[in-house]
Design brief:
By secondary structure, this protein is an alpha/beta fold. The protein is built from twelve helices and five strands. This is GST N-terminal domain-containing protein.
Length: about 250
Amino acid sequence: MAASKSHSYRSINYATLTDDEIVAFTKPDGKLNYFNCVVCPFAQRALWAALEVQAPIDTIIELNVFNLPPSYSQLVNRYGNVPHLIHDGTHVYDSALIVNYLDVTFGRGKLGRRDTPKIAALADLLTLKTSYVPLYNYLSHQNETDAPVRALLSELETIYRDHAKAHRANGPFLLGADVSTGDINLIPWLFRFEILLAHYKAYTLLPEKDFPLLKAALEAAKALPTFQQTVKDSSIYIQAYSVVANQAS
């Protein structure tokens, strides 16, 4: 089900567009258009899912999530968040909703295992328990102890180890050898904060002795061509998140 490693989508910078050109993307036109930010983990979720199901995205419109232009909330997404998907004039808000929409529309629900509700519930549980708040607060010095981070990771490790125990012998991802919506919604956060916390706080996010299953899932994702197409060099994330890491220092 994975997309070809050579697959690519047409990409343009939001800042280069006129208001009329922006509005045109929101109209019913039979096309799938995606508003993205390359450094945003929420956005990576949806783009990774799109590649997994080979969604026929016509255009990716790139934004800077740290400096969104006022026209974005006025003309595109009234909530002012990124990512945002527009399919033939239908707006899909929030990254987890976009992941599910792409999966059901173009992947027949395979990423979310929608044909097997009991298994689908595991992927949904992982998505539900995935939170960026402890990671963000630790990076931004709003919380100087790593206790909330470790509590979050312990909960996620428990889901992989205990709740998905029946799938552990089948592969590194939550449900075995193939990536699920749960993995897609979690791993972009692990990927970024492994880089960011190591750089800004000399902190190891996933010691293998403490979180072996999360570490294995992250490393397996890094090896996927679909995942590789959605990430940038570490320096890009370090530079982009410097405003967060240094805001209280």
